[in-house]
Amino acid sequence: MHKPVRSPARPPIPSVIKRNTALFAVILAFTGVGMNFAFILGPLMVVSLMGSATLAGLAVGLIGLSRFIVGYPVGKITDTYGRKPGVLFGLALGLAGAVGVGFSMSLRSIVLFAGAMLVFGMGMNAAQQLRVAATDMFPPRLRGQALGYLAMGSMLGVMIFPFLIQAAQSLAGGIGEDPLGVPWLLLPALIIPGMFLVALVRPDPKEIGMHLERYFPDYRPPSGTAAAQRSSLIAIRLVRHVPTLHAIVANTAAQGNMSIVMILTSLALDHHGHSLFAISVSMAFHASGMFAFSIPLGWLADRYGRAPVMFPGVAITLVGAWMVAFTAPYWSITLGTFLVGLGWAAANIAATAAVADYTETIERGRAIGVIESFAGAMSVAMALITGPLIEWRGLPAAGYTAIFVAAVPLAMLLATRASLRSAQRRRTA
């Protein structure tokens, strides 16, 4: 009887790569809390300072603008000097911005709030080069899971987030400060340890990526000539290559959908009379959707391909946006925002892996910077229109917009498949 031939065993992941990945995950746990502050507290802070929901999307818009500003330049820095300098630079900016945002509430200054939030966002988005570092250290067959393990580090931040809000509220009452501003003043206690942990990472992930075959003997790097030819005009190549174009559009749409929903969630729950703690718990479910299932999502992207994970993820964000905008109970809004986070995670992990697969180490920081810039631009656009839409037509108008944004890449996928079928029929004829 014929016996199946077993494939040779894969070499284990080297301990140095496991160690670096664990350090990056802890760094995300320490620093990711601040991004939750921006999305959850930001809209409420703007309404408090301005007395109107017209500019409720200002904080989310500034985070998106900062993402657009730093995405490609910090990628150029990390491609040139290594991933660690870019991450440390980002954390230093984030530290300064967090303190400024906190004091903006004490001074009742929307100008200080806007400037500090922009600086904070630039720092935190620059620190997202951690994702590039993760893709550097793993071959394509493991990149999705690597991104999943990295994102799981954020779950610790999700778990402590509501309690940090509660502690900040209690502290604010004792010192007579605004409860929306005090949480920001606690962030340095998390960001500074994160900076020390970055210093412990060695060697720099870029160095590992440049010599990946030393760590994974089964990996075969591309030829030097091919890599050199691929290093120019990275943004144009990404847009012209259909799989990476799909990745950019899907990731951008998921980010735009989520930008609207994160504004809607805070305002909707506040409108229904729920406390700041209840809002933070709901948003913690959203964050758990973003991170809790990142490892299985990464495994699925490695096992079945990037597109079969990416596009269903976008579809899930569409369903979640409908629930947040068009239902009233606390549990249904919370479930909706959870689904948006889950869909975003699927789209983001698969899209990032798709772009990393198509690029080499010497250009990967800029390539990820390109998709970050597209996503940042979408966040800015959605933040600018969400507040006026709510003022003009209420929550449903913003909900319809979020649904439309998520539908765009799905329509593009259908159009691409129809075009391929038509071309197949012509070749057959």
What report would you give on this structure?
This protein has 20 helices and no strands. By secondary structure, it is mainly α. The protein has a single domain (15-214, 233-420), classed as Growth Hormone, Chain: A. α4 (83-107) packs antiparallel against α5 and α14 packs antiparallel against α20. It starts with 14 loop residues before the first helix and ends with a helix. The model is unreliable at 1-7 and 225-229 (pLDDT under 50).
The CATH architecture designation is Up-down Bundle
Order of helices and strands: HHHHHHHHHHHHHHHHHHHH
Q: What distance separates the N and C termini?
A: 44 Å
CATH H level: which superfamily? MFS general substrate transporter like domains
Instruction: Examine the coordinates and then state which fold CATH places here, giving the name of the CATH topology.
Output: Growth Hormone, Chain: A
Q: What is the subunit organization of this protein?
A: single chain
Report mean pLDDT, rounded to a whole number.
86
Helix/strand-derived category reads mainly alpha
User: Number of folding domains?
Assistant: 1
Helix content: over 70%
Per DSSP E runs of 2 or more residues, the count of β-strands stands at 0
Proportion in β-strands: under 5%
Largest sheet: none
| Principal-axes shape call | globular
Low-confidence stretches: 1-7, 225-229
Q: Rg from C-alpha positions?
A: 22 Å
Helical stretch tally: 20
User: So what's the CATH class?
Assistant: Mainly Alpha
